[in-house]
What does this fold into?
Amino acid sequence: MARNTAIFSFGTGISRIAGLLREIVFAKYFGTSGTASAYTIASLVPNLVANLFAQSALSAAFVPVFTDLLAKGQRREALGLASTLFWIMLIGLGAITAFFVLAAGLIMPLFIGPKFSPELNDLTVGLSQVLFPVVLLLGLNGLLVGILQSYDHFTIPAISPAVWNVVIIVLLVVLAPHFHGKDEIYAYAIGILAATGVQLSMAFGALGRIDFRLRFHIDWHDPRIKRVFMLMLPVTIGLGIVNLDQLINSAFGSLVSEQAPRAIDNAFRVYMLPQGMFSVAVATVLFPTLSRMASSRDAGAMRRAVGNGMRQINLLLIPAAAFMIVLPNPIVRLLFQRGQFNHESTHLVSIALFWFAFSLPFGGLNLLLTRTFFAVQRPWIPTSLAAMNIVVDIIVSVALYKPLGIAGLVIGTVAANVVMTALQLRRLRAGLNGRLEGAQTTMITARIAVASALLAGVSWVVWKLLDELLGGSLAAQIVSVGGAGAAGLFVYVRSVLAMHVPEAHQVHRLIASQFGRA
It folds into this structure.
């Protein structure tokens, strides 16, 4: 599991870095302008629909049932299940996509605040029509990725997002000169659509490596189809509720200013870099393992696996959060401040990133805990908790967006994630008849927090000294922020190893063994 997590983390890390490069190129072209915010809102609705009816929801419902068939040696039945779902999704998501493309002019204005001009409203509608077909492509890709992960094949699913990002960057640069004014952003939307098609083709190609070929087969009477959709219903509702958080931020952001939706989205992309590299990797690799443990009813093994996964996430995300908290402005300035992305844009994004950092460990834990409920096929539990979570988000956001602006919206996200983590832990302890190694996790997390505080202090001091010494050129910013990160990381690693954090020694041994083989 550790090796698969390392492989997935590495591949996902490359993908996230490529995604960050994509965001940097986007920021250079469009900054945090109203045009950029129009794209942000236009993309959120197709992404929400994709998560509701396709990608994440289907994968979370499909993998436990599919893995159970493989564990019982029923490969033929597993192939039939996957093939039937593929064609049902092609028909169903195709119809949903066609409906949203035709009705975009009625749907999209529901998510646009009064700060948007009529021109930006029309641009948002047009962009959404280009992006809605992504729903169909992502849905089919989610099914194929679920098959690959059930066979413990994580390489292609990990690296295909990197290819996706590269295709978008190339098409943006190539196509942008062919558009004029605000329409230039259509080049980016077209790149998204084309890149998603490339990603789907990569998943199809990877199926050949496990000798798994989908066939034209629809068995409407297969009881497992009903089982998948019954599991998918609460997952869909839960993920829809969770993904409403981004819609809330963007919708309320459009009440704050034209720039706010894009500024929040820029900060969210930086926030998702460590989230995607670490917590998504741990949760993704652990999910099929937890599903097998659930199938064999090994509650003790599940408690140990979840406890270890939680500590791994804390080990990696708490220091990342500490670094973002002390250096939000230098990070944003280094990544984005060029072209149309000016000093004011940096200021707005830095505010959002500072508050997002507090949510980082809780978001990672929520992902793992939710996947655990999915693995034991109890998806209604996180769904009901997610409903409570979104209420917290809305209440805090409504209370704070006027006095605090962007900060108030992100604080709503932080509060909701903290509440969700506490509620999921409480229910999972009861469900697994144990405390998820709570005492050990609390003790180790306290050590991680102390080491992260040292990282924060050292990082800020080193950055301050280098920034004053070298100035504000791009090369100087790379050295000052990179030097601060390297110094903080060195202190952090030495600290967690000295404090005998077991998960730190696990990572240390894994790295040492890999370099030893090399």
About this structure: Residues 31 and 342 are 7 Å apart (CA to CA). Residues 2-517 form one domain. The chain has one domain: 2-517. The chain has 18 helices and no strands.
